Amino acid sequence: MPLFLIMSTLVKYKKLFQITLLLPFIPLLVFAKSVFANPNNLQSIPNQPLPAFSAQYTVLHKSDPVGTAVRKLSYQADGSVNYHYKTQVKWLVFSQTRSETSILTINKNQVTPQHYTYTREGTGKDKRYEWRYNAVENKAEDIERKRSHNIDFSNNLQDKLSYHLQHRLNLIADAKQKSYIYSVINTSGTIKDYTYQYDGEEELILPYGLVKTIRFKREIKEKERITYAWFAPELNYLLVKLYQTKAGNEQFEAQLSSLTIEGRSVKK
Fold first, then answer.
1. Each residue's pLDDT tens digit in the chain (268 positions)?
2. Nearest 10 degrees: CA dihedral of 215, 169, 206, 251?
3. Domain spans of the chain, in order of start
4. What is the DSSP string of 26-61?
5. 224/50 Cα distance (integer angstroms)
6. What is the DSSP secondary-structure string of the chain?
7. CATH number belonging to domain 53-266
């Protein structure tokens, strides 16, 4: 083959190779040009007052491990928060799984619930509740029973899970108060005030490690139920221990065993 044909062929292959290398980046370049050419396409990163996390707990009954629990917070594509809590317990003939999820928004440290689901399966009667909330229109919809309620959201109304997150945000903002009160809509549609009373400071030895905490107490007198909750300032006031009694008898205890923040394991 003549030399000029060989050189011509090599030049063609070189150009083809360069184009091939660029192909994977062409869609990205087109997208970038489209976005930055139009300011209306720019979306700000959603405000995230808390990082995404997953906290694992050991559930105990009279000091014996009987199950596990997990508390998770993640952000959805639209910027809303998925806050989730699940327990799995097995003790003698008793076996039960409970799951709660609250879809909510956080604006200026205020939690606003949008959608709540609760399921309980295992020993005893299975239960399921699902509610949808519209704080702007002061509406609450009981999806399972197909009922709509007019509800006043002006007092920072919470669902049965979202108030846990609101309490943590309140502690981060100001942990010196002696009591915190939350208006909570129950699965029946009634509204009750849940109160956390400051109950002292305590250093705990947990499966996670040694942690300094502040302790709060919540009492429901009509049910003779007392719940103690420990929060760790060094972990941004994460709940690290929960202990509940009813009529003076221990029901359960949950202790933090491991923690992941933004996908990274946090060690003591």
1. 443 333 444 344 333 334 333 333 333 333 333 333 333 333 334 467 899 999 999 999 989 999 999 999 999 999 999 999 999 999 888 899 999 999 999 999 999 999 999 999 998 889 999 999 999 999 999 999 999 999 999 999 999 999 999 999 999 999 999 999 999 999 999 999 999 999 999 999 999 999 999 999 999 888 889 999 999 999 999 999 999 998 878 789 999 999 999 999 998 8
2. 60
3. 3-41, 53-266
4. HHHHHHHHHHHH-GGG--PPPP-SS--EEEEEEEEE
5. 34
6. --HHHHHHHHHHHHHHHHHHHHGGGHHHHHHHHHHHH-GGG--PPPP-SS--EEEEEEEEETTEEEEEEEEEEEE-TTS-EEEEEEEEEEETTEEEEEEEEEEEEEETTEEEEEEEEEEEEESS--EEEEEEEETTTTEEEETTTTEEEE---TTT-B-TTHHHHHHHHHHHH-TT-SEEEEEEE-TTS-EEEEEEEEEEEEEEEETTEEEEEEEEEEEEGGGTEEEEEEEEGGGTSEEEEEEEEETTEEEEEEEEEEEEETTEEE--
7. 2.50.20
